[in-house]
Amino acid sequence: MLDDGLSPMAGGTDLLVPGRKAAGRGVALLEGLPGLDGVAMTAQGLRLGALASLAALERHPVIRERLPVLAQAIACLGSPLIRNMGTMGGNLVTASPAGDTLPALLVLEAVVELASRDGRRHLPVAEFLLGPGRTALGPGEIVAAVRIALPPPGASQHFEKVGRRDALAIAVASLAALIVRDEAGRVVEARLAVGSLAPTARRCPSAEAALPGRRLDREALLEAGRRIRDEISPKGDLRATAAYRREMAGRLPLRLLTLA
Amino acid sequence: MDADRDKGASPGAPRVDALDKACGRQRYAADETPPGCLLAGVKRAGIPHGRIVRLDTAAARAVPGVVTVLTRADVPGTNRQGIVHKDQPVLCGQRVRHHGDPVALVVAENKDALAAGLAAVEVAFEALPAVFDPEEALSPNAPLVHPDREGGNLLAHGLMEKGDAESALAGCDVVVAGRFATPAQDHVSLEPPNGLARLAPSGRLTMVVSTQAPFRDRFEIAQALGLDPQRIRIRAPYLGGGFGGKDGATVQCLLALAALRLPGRWIKMAWSREETFLAGYKRHAAVMDIRLGARADGTLEAIACAMCFDAGPYAHLSGEIMELGMEHAGGPYRIPHVRIEGSCAYTNNPVGGAFRGFGVVQACFAVERAMDMLARRLGRAPESLRLQNALRPGETSAVGVAAEPGTDVAACLNAALAHPLWTGREAWKQAAPAFTRRGVGLVAVQNAMGYGRGLPDHATAKLELTRQGTFRLYNSVPDMGQGNAAAFVAMAAQALGQPEAAVACVQPDTAACPPAGSSSASRTVYTFGNALLRACRTMAEKLRNRAALALLCDTPDRLVLTPGGVSDPATGRFVPLSVLAGFLIRDDRICIDQFVMPVVENPPDTGREFKLGFPHRYFTYGACLCGVEADELTGRVRLVQCLLTVACGKVFTLAGVEQQLAGAAAQGAGLALFEELALEGGRIRAGDLSTYLIPTSLDLPDIDCLPLPDDEPSGPLGIKGMGEVGIHGPGPAVAQALFDAVGLDAASLPITPEVVLAALEELTP
Amino acid sequence: MNEPMDIAFRLNGRPVELTTDPGRRAIDVLREDFGLTAAKEGCGSGECGACAVLVDGTARLSCLMLAAQLHGRDLTTAEGLGRPDAPHPIQTAFAVHGAVQCGYCTPGMTIAAAELLARDPAPDREAARRALSGNLCRCTGYVKIVDAVLAAGAALRGEES
């Protein structure tokens, strides 16, 4: 069906909105296809089926326990009704710069499993997202799943979305963080990713490099914030100016001070 | 207060409309789709100001399923709609004056054909210079929105004066001056404007419309289309929200036009959410310059206020809205010297119109903010300055009208000051979590009830005893959700000694109900309720008299109406209403009575420009406390506490009062923090619900409502209107709370995170 | 237009079938073909929740569902939760607790509440607010809606509210 130019549709929460890509015509429903639903534990970690609803993922005990950054990101996506319909795969393929799960997937170093009649291939999320609404999906290809290796149990995970209201909000800025610290509280590894601050959600390698060896104190986090600002290219829109977004980039890391 | 409540309906009794609505069984206008119904839609301008140079409907007519395409040439009559001033075309023929102006009406068999037909209408414009700022619109060289109009872009202008404000300001110990602005606001009724129409072979036009003013609609339609208003019948089922956005023509004239051209067919028009943003009325954006002067001891001496309202391209009720704003510009305070000037300008922005709060929202924000500035200048607490100057019964208001007896605004403030949210505020602020700053604000509010002098605020109520011995009341004032229909049923049931189940309610229908004014202006339950209680008294007296015959009782006054009948306490005898009804002809089973709201008896000698609607006699007072949290990192503000105290006469049902107060406060909170149309060149950029943000359930606190003991002897069961008073407080109270929290002195709404962040920066560089 | 498709599903407890364009919106099928008007269109884009229905027990937006997606499903509208003469405890609670004003958002609210209470029989106010956060209401300020959801939970648990 995809060869006939139909758009593959998962939950429909983006595709069916009037004025968007399909608006009720020319879609191929993915639901019911085998292997696309559910969450599976594998030797490497979790495999989240592309059609798994965001609500199911939000409530999944392993995700809540081991991937809180993703659970928190999903919990502030759209609304409960949207999360009941929207899917992991849909959030990826929509590839909105403001896609709420994307920064979380980036710090989890998730891998996208792509399927077509020619077989399967795997791409890190960072390589899957090419631009606003643009992905590395090839012709006739769909997202089948997202694979996530479980981070070490002691890693701190954090997600914050800045929206104009507390539900049904499109992110003005977001920050996902995954921090591994040693027993003395010094950072061993830091992964930071932001949303709505660049054409795609993106990791912030320079900021990440500022943290290892340091404690998560105000100075270190301000330094990370300064570096994030240098790594992003925010735009202004109805929700916020570019200047405000840049300001958020610099400030959001400070919230990590509240990490235990 | 409990004693008062006991006289009302029992607090636990649900509204009669509630269960049908909860079960999804209530049929709104939008739910009516008769078989074979055609669909109508409008091609809209899409530019702010222009001359139509070409309008070609041939391609649209050729679309399969399109039944007809109508343009200005098809409109009989004046083609002018409007409530007071008739200046808005039903369909534009030569010129469009805002993005949402209608240029063609397409009628089709189904949705797809309608969409294709609308897309196929070819229209070309010559762009004309446009004006988007109401103050600029009043400058001599501004583009004219109505070029041949005497007076140019100045739609309305007026002055309200008392004493000598300029001299008094010159002599004040302290004068503060500020410029304040409030934005346009969309009603976001969950049910967008919609309706149906059919022209019967008899020539009678029948319409079902989601409207707040079915009786007045007939005249607006008749005027615009050259019809006989007596040949128009309008039904107004329960509305899915209105808030003013359905007070005036939305779909009415367009639907009627389509029906005239396609006799015998039902035609339906339902605006989408986007079309509602584009074409619907908005609360007027306003700019207000205030100078407020006081003695060193805080006694207010004088206020000078200039208000400028953005009317958009058509009058709607702009002049009247400005007028009510002006009447409230001095706040609920004792001020001897007052000068309030209002002007209202045509622009090429969206059309300004009625919205809950009707000019008062704007005025209240400005004067309350000015009071905060003055308090700061005097080194006084904001609440103590307000209490010191609170208008008391018998004293003259800013515009020279003596305040009526009753619970006053000082009592409302004091009740808020005694509330734990106020007394505990310091501890609450101290307990703020990391990165969070808390602040509390408290303001005073007031809202006039009714249309004001010059425009009779009237209602007529009809009550029928059915052949079966139950009652049927004919509600003439649409219920847009405020619960007036349920209140009328409860009032009638109580007055007639019957259970509510014995009182059926017919919703407004110009063919069945006697006329009444609109569902608006905090007047609905007061005015219609008075008319209804009169009809109930007449009915009760009649039934006692008729029953006296059956009960062989020569003193009918001793008889009482009891559930299902009339009883004689002296003998214990009882005659069922069903039996009585069987003996009465229909004329005798109907009681009709009316009421007109009393007006100010000695109006002040000011505001003479205003023939309709000035001044008002009755005011509802209140106070509003808001507690906010501002996030230090993002500037995001959350409203986490909200208390409304109100003096609104007696409380008929506590739930009813709470519903109106909390709902109004929620809209005020939206205006304070979220809602912004983001106009650019007259175009609404935030024209859907993903960009125009109203509060969700996570954005509001549990709003506390505290009605105070009060009584309005002229009201039905002692009540006053209170549908609007709750909306005014959150804007200025949130602003004051943010000053408390982060030192931000907001002069305009909404207060965005960026503005808050800037204030935080100043606080902690 | 797509080729008409035979669609069979359960609607408010009864099996139904229709042949229609599978690309039509579910809300239109409910309102136009079945005359069930509890699901309201407030925005048509998933931003208001007035069109919510239960699909296999999960609250979904019928304005963002296609007719084809109804096939094989079990669908409940507010009409199917209860009737005025035999209301669902949630509907009763909404009426008794003053949660209904204009009522246009109410059916969708009751659907969201039904899903919540099936999953979490004793939610606190915060949980109720979260569960309803995709359903806009312009009349109430939500306070009494939250009251009603908690009371309905208590009633469903067999407790006095």
TrEMBL record, chain A:
Coiled coil: none annotated. It comes from the Bacteria. One of its GO terms (molecular function) is oxidoreductase activity. Gene3D superfamilies: 3.30.465.10, CO dehydrogenase flavoprotein, C-terminal domain. Residues 1-153 form the FAD-binding PCMH-type domain. SMART domains: CO_deh_flav_C. InterPro entries: CO_DH_flav_C, CO_DH_flav_C_dom_sf, Diverse_Substr_Oxidored, FAD-bd_PCMH, FAD-bd_PCMH-like_sf, FAD-bd_PCMH_sub2, Mopterin_DH_FAD-bd. This is Aerobic-type carbon monoxide dehydrogenase, middle subunit CoxM/CutM-like protein.
TrEMBL record, chain B:
InterPro entries: Ald_Oxase/Xan_DH_a/b, Ald_Oxase/Xan_DH_a/b_sf, Ald_Oxase/xanthine_DH-like, AldOxase/xan_DH_MoCoBD1, AldOxase/xan_DH_MoCoBD2, AldOxase/xan_DH_Mopterin-bd_sf. Pfam families: Ald_Xan_dh_C, MoCoBD_1, MoCoBD_2. One of its GO terms (molecular function) is iron ion binding. SMART domains: Ald_Xan_dh_C. Residues 23-129 form the Aldehyde oxidase/xanthine dehydrogenase a/b hammerhead domain. This is Aerobic-type carbon monoxide dehydrogenase, large subunit CoxL/CutL-like protein. It comes from Solidesulfovibrio magneticus str. Maddingley MBC34.
From TrEMBL, chain C:
One of its GO terms (molecular function) is metal ion binding. Transmembrane segments: none annotated. The keyword DNA repair does not apply. Pfam families: Fer2, Fer2_2. CDD domains: fer2. It comes from the Bacteria. Keywords: 2Fe-2S, Iron, Iron-sulfur, Metal-binding, Oxidoreductase. Residues 5-81 form the 2Fe-2S ferredoxin-type domain. InterPro entries: 2Fe-2S-bd (IPR002888), 2Fe-2S-bd_dom_sf (IPR036884), 2Fe-2S_ferredoxin-like_sf (IPR036010), 2Fe-2S_ferredoxin-type (IPR001041), 2Fe2S_fd_BS (IPR006058), Beta-grasp_dom_sf (IPR012675), Diverse_Oxidoreductases (IPR051452). This is Aerobic-type carbon monoxide dehydrogenase, small subunit CoxS/CutS-like protein. It comes from Solidesulfovibrio magneticus str. Maddingley MBC34.
